[in-house]
Design goal:
With about 160 residues, the chain is of the alpha+beta class. About 25% of the residues lie in helices and about 25% in strands. It binds tetrahydrodeoxyuridine.
Length: about 160
Amino acid sequence: MKKQNVTFELEIYESLEELSKVDQKLMRTAVEARKNAYAPYSNFQVGAALLLENGEVVIGNNQENACYPAGLCAERVAIFQAGAKYPGVVITSIAISATSMNYQVDTPAAPCGNCRQSISEYEVKQKQPIQLLMMGEVGEVMKCNSISDILPLAFTNSFLK
Ligand code: THU
């Protein structure tokens, strides 16, 4: 038997203003994208903004449904849109921000498991990591270098032969 520790580097910024200009701009776009979330059931609105290698920015927001599982998270709305519109273009970063009509979200919103899996698929497809920026409505911003950092032991196409 052998043991292995899995670690990753997480950068924590005290506020949005501490980020680089490029990252700040992308996060502000994610904040803006929250406004068009359709979240009448959870009252939890999420915005996502992707930066592509060609400079394009693609946004998404959560789209809920009376049949709850039929809804989709902001991250997947954004990444599928990028895949549909710019299929061969590398995604360099994704910024995520969440707010709620019920309380002030003051901790960074990390993507759910399904979104991690979907983002992982695109990392594998493009053979390049996607940087993640995560924020609530106020407070700290977390940054990590790759979705694989927060989805260790991912199931990927390498299993499908
Ligand atoms: N949600 C996202 O959009 N992204 C996440 O990573 C977590 C959750 C949405 C789904 C649902 O519309 C609402 O937030 C509450 O779960």
